[in-house]
Amino acid sequence: MTRISSRSGLSDTIAAVATAPGHAGVGVVRVSGPEALAIADALFAGRRRPSQTPGGRFLFGGLLGAGGERLDEGLCLVFRAPHSYTGEDVAEFQTHGSPAVLGEVLTRALELGARTARPGEFTLRAYLAGRLDLTQAEAVLNLVEADTETARKQATLGLSGALGERVDAVARDLTLTLSSIAALLDYPDEGVPEEERQTPLARAETELEALLGTAHAGRVANQGARIALIGAPNAGKSSLLNALLGYERSIVTPIAGTTRDYLEAGLSLAGVPVTLVDTAGLRDTEDIVEAAGVQQAVRLAGGADVVITLSDGSQPREALPLELPPTTRAIHLRTKADLPAAWTDPEVLEVSAATGAGLPELRERLGTELLGDVSRSEAWLGSERQADAARRALEHVRLARQLPDDLASIELEEALLALAELTGRDVQDDVVDAVFRNFCVGK
Ligand SMILES: Nc1nc2c(c(=O)[nH]1)N(C=O)[C@@H](CNc1ccc(C(=O)N[C@@H](CCC(=O)O)C(=O)O)cc1)CN2
Ligand SMILES: Nc1nc2c(ncn2[C@@H]2O[C@H](COP(=O)(O)OP(=O)(O)OP(=O)(O)O)[C@@H](O)[C@H]2O)c(=O)[nH]1
Ligand SMILES: [Mg+2]
């Protein structure tokens, strides 16, 4: 991917295919910048010239090659600055969704003076035009990549500006405190009344803590999570994987040691994209293939976001031959609940892959482990970059609460800088570049 520098070449006109590679009903080429409508005039022949068409309209007509031949028939959408996604003049060509047509239309736009858009450059332009803040731009990225309901909901919330508003509310409290400190600095004997200083700061601290509490859920919603199934041979790991998936993905037999190589399968759980990992049953074994599988299982348990341990409820209980680190998010299951129980434990969830008993409860527990108890109607932090900035802001606010007025001011300025970086209101070019580098071309 080309490295972008966010402020260079912004007066150019850019073009890209906006739809996914491959064949589809309709495909879109987008052109944005000062020459967009002039390019459209040369590329498109309809009832009217695009440059003579008011913004917000579409034209039906022919898309023309260099010799005036028809490449396809399609639509031209006309947007006029500042009333477009980027804030610039934009022409969109909606063609039949063939890579051949889209490739030739794009080539023609480039011949007519556009240059290929860099990854995320349409959205970058929207950000630089002040139409989106950086949290909204990142929400666009998360929305394009969303596969599941929770990811989609959070991205839509972020796109509406809800996350930026949460951050701005904190920033207002910090500014308020800073100004009351500044107003009293000339009167060194007075100091800011404790209450005037602590109330907004306490509120800011609480809100930043709440925001940071959403970072894990945000990461899981956007990146997904890995859930490893761990237990002795025959505990019912593969059966549970199949039951959760709703189809027979993994081989199940009464022979202990059936699963040797690990196996992954994707599904949506709690509206979150999840990879379930079935592993070899843990035991000492002479079989070198199985032993390698057991080693893998231990490694997979270590790398999983959640570990589900399974113990056969119809057999005498045996301890898991594996120490999970105390920080592991683990759910313990007693399997084969349809059979007479050889043991019970109120701490352990009972499930039966055979009857489906306990699976709704298991899905709910998994939802809690994955997302925590954050409110789904509030905006969550949507990237590591945002979480990092929020963390720095929180540290400065905490310090400010313990320091005398003049030193507190310095910490509050720092906290405000971190928040401005979060929303992108005041941010270094390289941070912006790093955000947009993750986009695809055409977005
Ligand atoms: N064809 C197409 N569909 C798309 C986009 C696009 O660029 N093209 N979008 C891009 O990712 C998203 C929609 N986002 C957009 C946001 C603002 C404007 C826009 O023109 N706004 C003007 C006019 C508003 C109005 O007419 O009410 C404005 O805000 O002034 C267009 C698309 C999703 N669907
Ligand atoms: N009655 C009953 N039998 C089950 C249940 N789940 C699994 N079994 C049986 O238990 C045996 C082992 O099941 P698997 O799912 O292959 O167990 P596993 O943990 O994957 O075993 P390995 O791959 O050998 O480690 C099979 O005969 C299953 O039919 C259940 O919920 N109820
Ligand atoms: Mg198995």
From TrEMBL:
Cofactor, how bound (note): Binds 1 potassium ion per subunit.
Task: State the Gene Ontology BP annotations.
Answer: tRNA methylation; tRNA wobble uridine modification
Enzyme Commission number(s) = 3.6.-.-
Residues the record lists as binding GTP: 234-239, 253-259, 278-281
| InterPro entries the record matches | G_TrmE, GTP-bd, GTP-bd_TrmE_N, GTPase_MnmE, MnmE_dom2, MnmE_helical, P-loop_NTPase, Small_GTP-bd
Q: Where does K(+) bind?
A: N234, T253, I255, T258
Q: Where does (6S)-5-formyl-5,6,7,8-tetrahydrofolate bind?
A: R30, E92, R131, K443
Q: Where is the TrmE-type G domain?
A: 224-371
According to the UniProt entry, its GO molecular function terms are: GTP binding; GTPase activity; metal ion binding
What Gene Ontology terms describe where this protein resides (cellular component)? cytosol
Keywords associated with the record: Cytoplasm, GTP-binding, Hydrolase, Magnesium, Metal-binding, Nucleotide-binding, Potassium, tRNA processing
UniProt record similarity statement: Belongs to the TRAFAC class TrmE-Era-EngA-EngB-Septin-like GTPase superfamily. TrmE GTPase family.
Explain the purpose of this protein.
Exhibits a very high intrinsic GTPase hydrolysis rate. Involved in the addition of a carboxymethylaminomethyl (cmnm) group at the wobble position (U34) of certain tRNAs, forming tRNA-cmnm(5)s(2)U34.
Question: Whom does it interact with, and what assembly results?
Answer: Homodimer. Heterotetramer of two MnmE and two MnmG subunits.
Protein name, entry field: tRNA modification GTPase MnmE
Write down the species. Answer: Deinococcus radiophilus
> What is the organism lineage in this UniProt record?
Bacteria, Thermotogati, Deinococcota, Deinococci, Deinococcales
